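ok so I'm stuck.
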Amino acid sequence: MFTKIKHIDTAFQYVRGFTLLVILACLLIVCFALYKSYQLVKTMQSRIYILADGKVLEAYASDRKDNIPVEAKDHIRSFHQLFFTLDPDDKVIESSITKALYLADGSVKREYDNLKENGYYSGLISGNISQKITIDSIVVELEQHPYPFHCYATQRLIRATSTVHRSLVTQGFLRNVARSDNNPHGFLIERWKTMENNDIKVENH
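replied:
not stuck anymore, here's the structure
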């Protein structure tokens, strides 16, 4: 009889041990499933789908610090293209300059006022001159804030009879500001000035 009881006790211990093992395995499986589900949700939330020209494009969200070099250069490029790419139309000039002024501080406004007072824009209109700019390179130093930058570009003044090519070098600083519809990169150009703006060559048409 005692032997039978001993066998029953041993069997109960085996069953209890097996049950605990199954429960532990279930807990591990549940924890793993929850972890993978969390990772999947986090991955899906970092993806953005954009509809462009009838096509669905996938974009990925990332921290601002990962994109500072790219966004800073694009901000500088956008500003210079708006400020220096002009056609002989007062409304086009005003529209481009207004957009450019949202990306910079009063130093740019002062430069614009000086050019306007000196008759630069009226000269473009009266001479039917188109002004285009090509950005050659942009150097931004990210070790300090505000970020110092230099922009190297080539200007073209296109007339009916000739095209004047000019070298353009500007410098300034980038300060972090809040993003907006008018300033999507969240930077502001400060202490901007033109360091060089010289004729390179003239092409006669």
